[in-house]
Amino acid sequence: MTCPVNRIVYLHGFASSPQSSKAQSYRKRFAEKGLALEIPTLDGGDFTHLSITGQLQIVHAAVAGEATVLIGSSLGGYLAALYAAELLGMICRCWRACNGADFDAD
Asked: What is the C-alpha separation between 99 and 4, in angstroms, rounded?
C-alpha cells in the first residue's frame, strides 16, 4: 500500500514529555532528513487526571484528519496501536516500542 504521508507524530511514554531526550533525539534525526516531527503533550497539561480516552483525543487532534505515521514509545506505542486500529485508512504506518503490550491476534 502506498500512502502519501502528511504528518509524522511521535507519542511519548507515560510520565514523559515532548522535551524528553528520546523525543528530542527523534526530532533532531527527522529534521536532518528535512522532515517535521510533531510531538504532542499527551497529558494535556493535567497529569493528575490523565486517561487513555483523553490521550486518544490528543492523538486525534495531532493527526488532524491527515495521512499520518505514528511512532510511539512505551505508553505512546500502546496509544499508537489503539488509534491505528480504529482508523486503519488514515494511519499509514505505526511503529511502536512498548514491550508490555501484546498485540498478537489469536
From this structure: 29
From CA 41, how far away is CA 61, in angstroms rounded? 11
The string of pLDDT tens digits covering residues 30-69 is 999 999 999 999 999 898 888 999 999 999 999 888 888 8
d(CA 60, CA 54): 10
99 pLDDT exceeds 80? no
CB-CB contact of 4 with 33 (8 Å): no
Q: Could you state, in order of their start, the residue ranges of all structural domains in the chain?
A: 7-63+73-97
Instruction: State the Cα–Cα distance between residues 99 and 82, nearest whole angstrom.
Output: 15
The interaxial angle of helices 75-86 and 52-63, nearest 10 deg, is: 70
Confidence of residue 89 (pLDDT cuts 50, 70, 90): low
C-alpha grid cell for residue 69?
Answer: 505515521
